[in-house]
Amino acid sequence: MRPEVWLGIVLLAGAALSITRLLVAHLRSAQGQRPALWRTLALAVLTAASALLLHRTLLPPTPAGSDTLVVLTANAGGLPVPAGPVVALPEADGVPAGATRMPDLATALRRHPDARALVVLGAGLLPRDRDAVGGRALAYHPAPLQPGLVDVEAPDAVAPGARFTVRGRVSGIEDAQVALFDPAGRIVDTGTVDADGRFGLTGTARGAGATLFDVALQDVAPGAWTRAHVPVVIDADGPMRILLLAGAPNPDVRALRRWAEDAGASLRWRAALGGGAMAGDAPALEATRLAEQDLVLLDARAWDGLGAAARTTLLAAVRDGLGLLVHAPEPPSNALRSWLGAAGLAITAGRVREWRADAGPDDPARLRAWSGPGSDDAPFDPQLAGEAPPALGYRPLTGGLPAAGPGAADMMRWQALGQGRIGVVTAADSWQLPLAGRADLHGELWSAWAAALARPAGAAVAGFRGEARVGERVALCDLAPGARVAAPDGRAILPVPDPAADGCAGLWPRAPGWHRVDGGDVLWVRGVDDAPGVQAAALQAATRRLAGAGAGAQMPPPPAIPAVVWFFAWLLVTALLWALHRMRRGRGGVVPTA
Q1: Is CATH 2.60.40.10 what the domain over 462-529 is classified as, yes or no?
Q2: pLDDT at residue 197 is higher than 90
Q3: How far is the first Cα of the chain from the last one, in angstroms, to the nearest whole number?
Q4: Which CATH fold topology does 241-354+403-453 show?
Q5: How far apart (Å, rounded) are the C-alpha atoms in residues 488 and 513?
Q6: What integer pLDDT is reported at residue 461 of this predicted model?
């Protein structure tokens, strides 16, 4: 219990005991010796008033305005400063007269213990000061952001050959033009922000590994606020192991083999030639062999040629984690639909529709950066810029779950089965895309479908919370015991475990660049001055969240009387009480003592 509460209890008990003695003495006195009633009542009132004023004297009410502490942060200059005590944190500039410099917010609150509410001005509270707010009410008056990039969302880890989208927001520039640059400095995509300043730009993942794209504003002066790095981690796990089974040689088999080669996958394939003859090097459909694969691509004709034992083995492998994608450009047979339904994927196929992929940029240089340089046998053709790709026929599917990524939402459907996934795709003649010079569009489709169904990697991946920046804490989760982080300068950093953070650890990077965690995971750390608009917007957002969390905090009522007035009032009342005790008038025969 707080000391002020104990003091109130003691004074209240003392006053109550004194008044009780006065009343008891008055009632027990003989009729001729009883004190006058007005004297007993006056002594009781003065006793209660003296106790109350003594409490106010020892614990004077907070002076007006001192229960609200004004906190100045960076860029607070130019903002109106409310009345009350003012403290300036180290990053504050243009500190007005009367403000007190403080090393951090916790120190400021120790110097102002009566502060029950905070008013923060400027850029916002750094992570160093947020925990000190506690349950206090907080009002935030942000400084205006400079025009430029204030938000950039890097994509999650993407598969080689897949497309990804970089999203962000621009502040203070209407109809701003933004561009995405690949690591070679070529423009991949451009766009215009919407009414809220938001944008989305699309790029293509190439070889596996960690790389940097850039987002920049066009037609403005170059600067830190107009350009930002975008870290893209292209899945660097071992190559996807794919087993391709076809009922007969066809253009799709050739196109899929080329796609797997370009995507860096490990492909085993087999196509029936008739009369029991086979082409390819695919292993037999046995449990041990299927356990070595991540995904099986199976066309409907190949499924018709499987025996009952092979089909049972295939479903058992899917339950153990294997991914299975059935390619059925023609309506699935009743037997295939029944087999899929027994596996939990009940589908129906509609009439043929057409779907056409986005042609991409109409500028040859940008299309080259978008689709890739091509190869020796299929070089990039600049005449493809602005040319619509071939339309693909497909049968819309109902049932199961729709696939994310390119293509119509009802072109592929899938369902989880045990630890694995099983899906059906009805796209017909997708081989026409690479034949027309758009192998990138063909690879985008099949890479997305394969990534949705393939067996997940067995190794745990360390999770990173928030954006990493030099000098700021980064939370790393799901780390292996004793895992270290290799900084770009070659130093090995041991993250500091946090027992209260559910297995996470803290890292304070000192150098910008790619940091590698034991196990192969990577983390991009921004420099202190890299993308300052992104940092400023994140700081404001974090402070606004604190203001929302403390919105319901109770504030004490504003006081009205200075402390010295309470002291002289107590002195006057106590003197009157002393004088009345010694006054003979109305005393009667017995003078009770309080």
Answers
A1: yes
A2: yes
A3: 29
A4: Rossmann fold (3.40.50)
A5: 6
A6: 44
